[in-house]
């Protein structure tokens, strides 16, 4: 495709790979490119191999970093070994002259650039990232003025000296390639500068931002990759709105603090990843039976146990759907993209509060920790709808002590709650089965009635889930249906562009519980269904079979090596 | 003004003679004496006999999970510091599964009063050893006697940074009331460990046993509860069988020092952010 290009920088962890990538990502975004930036990293602080890939397009939003690579900047030999297979025929490697580059591929253009030496000459080895940026800019034919502008904005406050140093480093890299490898070019397609700046954001930031704008005022969490950035962003931005962030002693405490805070009337959440979600399972039941709103964000990573902490997977879904002891209604949302993280967290708060139940938002590392550029967020979607809280007037009108927190007299299954501090609204939220005022009971009819009341919420919810719980594109009655959940949206959509001649449909789930049953008709029509499941056991495939059947049509397409699906994976599975 | 009746709710289901009745009564009396209204108090409990207190107490309440009364209570206090928050539970609940939360609540100095009804045994599950059971104590799960050293909640609280540590006895209602009141008035985390005998399953640590063995530091001349070293030494000398205010220090409560501290409870801060400020938050991500 001529409207896009891909670039990657690789090296040892701790060598400034991310900052090198960030420079280019920022400049490209400022220039009006849509980008997706992907970080490949390991669970260690220094050493190993890490890389940062950017895919840029002049015309369309980019939701995925792409299967192929046009140009690689290698800080070490390992970066070549690990990434050369991804390079296109005739692809370019710029490598640091500090080592002799070896490649098993033929037809690549390999350029040796003294990145580190030039940086050292300037008195600061760290600045090799700017030398690499300069060298890349020549190859990509990007006007240096774009970088100057960025350098001035980034370092201007720290003084002219630093600005000049960075510009010099940039020019050194640019000039070196120009003089020594003048013909090694991969001209980037021309970007048209937008009228205003694009946003560059990852899914974790989108979740944090969405939570704060949608009225979340307490976050209790425990640090865990790949969810920690949610904690960082909220910590940096919530206190000025009177909100509190607490780093709890563990995930059990974090989740239960969020329940306590919600019970006391504050929109609150916790954020975590797989191992943390496991610890929160008893709390999930606590929120369910006490009918306390709760939002849990689970940024999924490779499991089981501590598994692959820096790699992506969609394998917490069964835990989110069925976890905890006993049975409790819950909502499980799987956002389909980085901007969607923003929209779905707002929805999560409203649903949790309206239906007084836990809402689990399962994002994953692919969209959680990686960045994408996009035009804007739609603020009109921010709608803090506080529902089903009694008013003081309603409580005043009751006889003393007559408030029934768990009243059975409710069609929707939701009984209005009071907030501590409200007069005559006293109740005890109980994790034991209870009668209408909250007193512990074991009698048969009441137990049944309370269970039925709690699950009645789903009847109402199921109706509204079909409006937003999935997206469908393609033929009205497709022969081949490709199905995915959450973040695999991008690759499936791109794969369908290579499905010429096929009658195809693409169904992407955004909500898994309650299950959007309106999707049935697409399964009904299809002769063959491919389920793109980023896990070993086919969790989405299993859910579909359980909810609507079609066992004989479902072919799971599984990936569990820690990497996101490629477009090629999907095309190959479908077209053979 | 609220009366005792306002702080009563439902009939307590503890065994006749259970020490927990005194704790409930003392708590109710203190709330009345302090002029508190039921809607401004929240009592959070865990699981076990002691956990029932949140149902029997006439304020807002949360009967949470085993060992989880403190995180629940801290979440509530974070949400609304204007509430008087009491966490309550037993020794199994608080010093077994909940001991991690206990240590962290002490160091955080959240302004809640934590009342532990300590009977040295698991009552509701019919008589197994608890973390505070004395070494050698025979129960259903320790037929040859408990092999481990007991948890020492008083010392643990003090070294963990609790700013108010007291111990009371269900057989001395007057002192129990006074200590609960002092704990509730104290700004910061207060532990009141209460010897609350289990008359059904613990035949060793009975009312009589406590009466014979307790040393009352409140009546001890020269005892200085602000002296940490003295507190630790004297508690050890009595093998923790002592009552009174054992340790107290003045230190800001968590809600006063937490980032984003507000004058009023978080629950009262506005949820809507003005449009221009929402834009400013988004603009952090704008590359232009």
TrEMBL record, chain A:
Q: Which InterPro entries did the record assign? A: 2-oxoacid/accept_OxRdtase_asu, PFOR_II, Pyruvate:ferred/Flavod_OxRd, Pyrv/ketoisovalerate_OxRed_cat, Pyrv_Fd/Flavodoxin_OxRdtase_N, Pyrv_flavodox_OxRed_cen, THDP-binding, Transketo_C/PFOR_II
What are the alphabetically sorted keywords of the record? Oxidoreductase
Domain of life of the organism encoding this protein: Bacteria
Q: What is the lineage of its organism?
A: Bacteria, Bacillati, Bacillota, Bacilli, Bacillales
Q: Which residues form the Pyruvate flavodoxin/ferredoxin oxidoreductase pyrimidine binding domain?
A: 210-452
Q: Start and end of every Pyruvate/ketoisovalerate oxidoreductase catalytic domain?
A: 14-175
The Pyruvate:ferredoxin oxidoreductase core domain extends over 479-569
Protein's name in the database: 2-oxoacid:acceptor oxidoreductase subunit alpha
Q: Which Pfam families match?
A: PFOR_II, POR, POR_N
UniProtKB/TrEMBL annotation, chain B:
InterPro entries reported in the protein's UniProt record:
2-oxoacid:Fd_oxidoreductase, OFOB, PFO_beta_C, THDP-binding, TPP_enzyme_TPP-bd
Record key words, sorted = Iron, Iron-sulfur, Magnesium, Metal-binding, Oxidoreductase, Thiamine pyrophosphate
Task: Provide the Pyruvate ferredoxin oxidoreductase beta subunit C-terminal domain boundaries.
Answer: 198-258
Q: Where is the Thiamine pyrophosphate enzyme TPP-binding domain?
A: 48-194
Taxonomic superkingdom: Bacteria
Cofactors named for this entry = thiamine diphosphate; Mg(2+); [4Fe-4S] cluster
Task: State whether keyword Magnesium applies.
Answer: yes
Q: Does the keyword Zinc apply?
A: no
Entry-linked Pfam families? PFO_beta_C, TPP_enzyme_C
Q: Which PANTHER family match?
A: 2-OXOGLUTARATE OXIDOREDUCTASE SUBUNIT KORB, 2-OXOGLUTARATE OXIDOREDUCTASE SUBUNIT KORB-RELATED
In its UniProt entry, what is this protein called? 2-oxoacid:ferredoxin oxidoreductase subunit beta
Native species? Tumebacillus amylolyticus
Show the taxonomic lineage.
Answer: Bacteria, Bacillati, Bacillota, Bacilli, Bacillales
């Amino acid at each position: 495709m001529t409207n896009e290009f891909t670039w990657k920088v690789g090296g040892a962890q701790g060598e400034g790979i991310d900052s090198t990538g960030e420079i280019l990502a920022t400049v490209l975004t400022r220039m009006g490119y849509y980008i997706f930036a992907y970080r490949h990293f390991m669970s260690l602080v220094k050493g190993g191999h890490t890389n940062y890939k950017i895919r840029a397009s002049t015309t369309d939003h980019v939701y995925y970093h792409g299967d192929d690579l046009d140009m690689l900047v290698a800080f070490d030999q390992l970066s070549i070994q690990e990434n050369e297979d991804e390079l296109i025929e005739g692809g370019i490697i710029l490598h640091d002259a500090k080592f002799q580059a070896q490649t098993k591929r033929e037809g690549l253009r390999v350029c040796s650039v003294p990145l580190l030496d030039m940086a050292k000459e300037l008195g600061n080895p760290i600045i090799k990232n700017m030398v690499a940026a300069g060298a890349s800019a020549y190859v990509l034919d990007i006007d240096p003025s774009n970088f100057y502008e960025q350098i001035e904005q980034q370092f201007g406050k720290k003084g002219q000296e630093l600005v000049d140093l960075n510009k010099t480093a940039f020019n050194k890299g640019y000039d070196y390639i120009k003089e020594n490898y003048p013909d090694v070019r991969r001209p980037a397609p021309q970007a048209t500068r937008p009228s205003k700046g694009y946003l560059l954001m990852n899914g974790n930031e989108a979740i944090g931002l969405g939570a704060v704008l949608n009225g979340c005022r307490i976050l209790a969490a425990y640090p865990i990759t790949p969810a920690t950035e949610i904690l960082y962003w909220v910590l940096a931005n919530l206190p000025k709105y009177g909100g509190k962030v607490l780093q709890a002693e563990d995930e059990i405490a974090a989740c239960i603090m969020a329940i306590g805070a919600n019970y006391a009337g504050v929109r609150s959440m916790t954020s975590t990843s797989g191992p943390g979600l496991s610890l929160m399972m008893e709390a999930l039941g606590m929120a369910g039976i006490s009918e306390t709103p709760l939002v849990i964000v689970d940024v999924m990573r490779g499991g089981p146990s501590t598994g692959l902490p820096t790699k992506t997977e969609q394998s917490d879904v069964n835990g989110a759907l069925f976890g905890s002891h006993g049975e409790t209604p819950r909502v499980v949302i799987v956002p389909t993209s980085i901007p969607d993280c923003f929209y779905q967290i707002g929805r999560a708060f409203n649903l949790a509060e309206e239906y007084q139940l836990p809402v689990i938002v399962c994002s994953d590392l692919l969209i959680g920790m990686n960045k994408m550029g996009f035009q804007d967020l739609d603020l009109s979607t921010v709608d803090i709808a506080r529902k089903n809280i009694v008013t003081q007037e309603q409580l005043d009108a009751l006889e003393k002590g007559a408030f029934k927190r768990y009243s059975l007299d409710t069609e929707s299954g939701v009984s209005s709650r009071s907030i501590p501090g409200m007069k005559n609204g006293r109740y005890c939220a109980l994790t034991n089965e209870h009668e209408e005022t909250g007193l512990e009971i074991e009698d048969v009819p009441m137990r049944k009635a309370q269970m039925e009341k709690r699950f009645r919420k789903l009847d109402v919810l199921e109706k509204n889930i079909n409006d937003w719980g999935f997206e469908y594109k393609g033929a009205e009655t497709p022969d081949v249906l490709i199905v995915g959940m959450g973040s695999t949206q991008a690759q499936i959509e791109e794969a369908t562009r290579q499905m010429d001649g096929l009658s195809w449909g693409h169904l992407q789930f955004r909500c898994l519980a309650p299950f959007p049953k309106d999707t049935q008709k697409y399964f009904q029509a299809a002769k063959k269904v491919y389920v793109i499941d980023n896990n070993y056991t086919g969790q989405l495939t299993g859910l579909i079979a359980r909810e609507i059947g079609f066992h004989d049509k479902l072919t799971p397409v599984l990936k569990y090596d820690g990497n996101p699906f490629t477009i090629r994976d999907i095309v190959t599975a479908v077209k053979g | 003004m609220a009366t005792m009746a306002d702080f009563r709710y439902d009939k307590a289901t503890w065994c006749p003679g259970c020490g927990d009745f005194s704790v409930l009564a003392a708590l109710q009396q203190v709330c009345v004496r302090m002029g508190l209204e039921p809607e401004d108090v929240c009592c959070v409990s865990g699981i076990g006999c002691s956990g029932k207190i949140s149902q029997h107490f006439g304020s807002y309440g949360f009967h949470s999970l085993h060992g989880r009364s403190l995180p629940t209570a801290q979440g509530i206090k974070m949400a609304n510091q204007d509430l008087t928050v009491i966490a309550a539970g037993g020794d199994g609940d608080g010093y077994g599964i909940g001991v991690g939360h206990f240590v962290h609540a002490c160091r955080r100095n959240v302004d809640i009063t934590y009342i532990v009804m300590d009977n040295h045994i698991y009552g509701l599950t019919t008589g197994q050893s608890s973390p505070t059971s004395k070494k050698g104590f025979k129960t259903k799960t320790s037929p040859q006697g408990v092999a481990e050293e007991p948890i020492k909640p008083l010392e643990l609280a003090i070294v963990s940074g609790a700013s108010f540590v007291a111990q009371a006895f269900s057989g001395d209602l007057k002192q129990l009331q006074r200590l609960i009141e002092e704990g509730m008035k104290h700004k910061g985390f207060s532990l009141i460990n209460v010897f609350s005998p289990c008359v059904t399953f613990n035949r060793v640590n009975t009312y009589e046993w406590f009466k014979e063995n307790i040393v009352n530091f409140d009546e001890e001349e020269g005892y200085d509860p602000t002296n940490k070293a003295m507190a630790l030494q004297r508690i050890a000398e009595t093998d923790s069988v002592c009552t009174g205010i054992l340790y107290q220090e003045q230190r800001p409560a968590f809600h006063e020092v937490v980032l984003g501290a507000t004058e009023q409870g978080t629950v009262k801060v506005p949820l809507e952010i003005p449009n221009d400020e929402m834009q400013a938050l988004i603009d952090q991500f704008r590359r232009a």
